[in-house]
């Protein structure tokens, strides 16, 4: 296949590559630093910080599986990608996305237990549970993404090679086929509903219980402290889901209403902006991590 980048904005490709490259470098540096802190600092062994380490790892995989090829396309260095490499890229990127969504759900459950069941927190959330979350998140992503890859492999391709994108995406590849792509369309929609949308609904439910518990706290200071522990997580959820869901839905339902360059730009945003900003959000909003960063610097 030949990746076209952002059709209609070819003259701006080099200018678009600059911010994407800077965000990618920030994502690499921030998440690697955060992951190193969680792994090396014995005071950051609580489940909350271990889950944050999993989030950083998912961010690194999500950004690294897509952004380097996108930069090569935007800089005019390499636009071609083999069919096998294309399927591998979309599989890894989507598995990382689903795994990150699963980790965000686990973090919401962590905050729910910490605020609503504080006396049982140590018994319910242990390092073993965090390990189970890590394995379950990756396994879930792999199980969800194996069928669409198989569906793409079975489709006949009749010579159309140009893919209007900066990296390979499930429905973008399916539209290059000359066979029946309805199974891909319906499975892609089901994947969106049963993965990020389901996770987002469960996260919203956990926050409803958290807000109800916070409102019952007797003192204003206790309420502020409880909400403060959820502030960083809520910010990350907004950064992660908003551009991703808009991109997914626009790709399936808004092809004739949302300009293609808007969709492609949003698709690039959700693989690089959350990974770049998540370490900043947690570094600023989480007191223990902010203190460790100050000590390190």
UniProtKB/TrEMBL annotation:
Residues that span the membrane, as ranges? 12-39, 51-75, 81-108, 129-151, 193-214, 226-250, 262-284
Q: Does the keyword Transmembrane helix apply?
A: yes
The G-protein coupled receptors family 1 profile domain extends over: 30-282
- InterPro entries, per database record: GPCR_Rhodpsn, GPCR_Rhodpsn_7TM, Olfact_rcpt, OR51/52/56-like
Q: Which PROSITE patterns match?
A: G_PROTEIN_RECEP_F1_1 (PS00237), G_PROTEIN_RECEP_F1_2 (PS50262)
One Pfam family, short name please?
7tm_4
Q: Name one GO cellular component term.
A: plasma membrane
Q: Where in the cell is it found?
A: Cell membrane; Membrane
Give the UniProt keywords, A-Z. Cell membrane, G-protein coupled receptor, Membrane, Olfaction, Receptor, Sensory transduction, Transducer, Transmembrane, Transmembrane helix
- Could you tell me which Gene3D superfamilies the record lists for this protein? Rhodopsin 7-helix transmembrane proteins (1.20.1070.10)
Kindly list the GO molecular function terms attached to this UniProt entry: G protein-coupled receptor activity; olfactory receptor activity
The yes or no answer to whether the keyword Transmembrane is present is yes
Q: How does it sit in the membrane?
A: Multi-pass membrane protein
Q: Which family does it belong to?
A: Belongs to the G-protein coupled receptor 1 family.
Role of this protein = Putative odorant or sperm cell receptor.
Q: Cross-referenced PANTHER family, in alphabetical order?
A: G-PROTEIN COUPLED RECEPTORS FAMILY 1 PROFILE DOMAIN-CONTAINING PROTEIN, OLFACTORY RECEPTOR 56B1-RELATED
- What is the recorded name of this protein? Olfactory receptor
